[in-house]
Amino acid sequence: MAITLGQRAKSIVRDPFFWVGSREMGGTALGIAAWGLVTGVAMVKSGLSVPLALFMGLSVYAGSAQLAVLPLMAVGAPLWVVWFTAICVNLRFVILSSMWRSYFAHLSLRHRLAVAYFSGDVIFVNFMRRYPEARPQPEQLPYFWGAALTNWLAWQIPSTLGIFLADQIPLSWGLGFAGVLALLGVLLSMLKDRATWVASIVACTAAVAAFALPLKLNILVAIAAAVAAGLMAEQLQKQASQLPAARDEEQRS
Amino acid sequence: MMSSFWVIVACIGLALITLITRAFFMIPERELPLPNWLKRGLKYAPLAALAAVIAPEIVMSNGQLIGSLADARLPALAASVVYFFYKRSILGTIALGMAIYLPLHIGMGW
Question: Which residue windows are transmembrane per the record (chain B) (predicted)?
Answer without folding.
Answer: 6-25, 45-65, 85-104
